[in-house]
Give the backbone structure.
Amino acid sequence: MEKPIVSINNYESSPDSLAKAIEEAMAFEKLQTKHRVLIKPNLVGWDPVYPIAPYGVYTTSRLVEDMVILLKDYGVKDIIIGEGSAPRGGKKKDQLVGTRLIFSALGYPYLLKKYGVRLVDFFEEPFEAVEFEGISLNISKAALGAEFVINMPVLKTHNQTKLSLGLKNLKGCIDLKSRRLCHHERIPLDYFCSLFVEIIPPSITVLDGIYGLEKGPYYLGTAHRMNAVVVSRDPLAVDVVGATMAGFEPSAVEHIAIYAKRNRRSLDLDSLSLKGLHPNEFKRILKWDYTWREDNTGPGNWDKLGVSGISIPKYDQTICTGCSSMYNPLLMLITSAYKGKPFDEIEVLTGKK
């Protein structure tokens, strides 16, 4: 097997930096002008109450426009930007906010107006059941119908899967029922995350490392400017490089390891043909989670504060990502309610276990 080519470069100018990476990775080698192209960014979800700094949380809009420019210059006419952002907000359907709001907030209508792309909210389109490895998932027909898929994840950590890079980013192409299934009581979330690129094979993966997000995947994380862009036709290669840049051994990220084992692939950088810069030139250790008490009854800082009489075990992979993101506000509320006396033997339980 030939070594997969991966281009790793600084993001310095638009659209030249991405153009250079595309050329080095030979990323458009199989692209035809007649193809229906899907760009899948990471627009994870939106908080309807609190303003969100987009840095490191969402795929950089400028980078998405760069990709549209390059596709248009290549002669591609049929371009879709699609996402299924997690709906948040009230209990009624008309109170929920999701993909359309994020499109608007991040400037995507400009791309529609200037370049004639189509903006697709996967939740407004039909889904189709697809079976793989004995598991049936409902996949967006818009994603399945694309002839050239461009996966554009963000370099960010994740509070349940350690990292959210290319393999995991395609989770945004499945419906809510399938997303709940991914938080199964017996089958790990990491296993599901290893399947998505098998069902929706990306033609190329473009990792947005302009910022790296620590303690993600939402807005409570800390963004660090890293100025990196990584491109490859091989999805595993991008995640191996991305994990290295974030300070992780790729084998320590379970869904990456599962995918590699199933496909009999190496996780060593030596197994890749690296173009441009070396990932170690961008390497920054990004913390992915908070310290928890040894007895799993709450965050580590409760020991310093003397909080007692209450137990809230750390969330596991059976709780959905949106609910796990509510842990920080919940812990803040509990901590602020502590007045120096033990709570009345309260236990908070979450998830399916």
Observations:
- Residues 5-281 form a domain with the Rossmann fold fold (CATH 3.40.50.11440).
- The mean pLDDT is 94.
- The first strand starts at residue 5 and ends at 10.
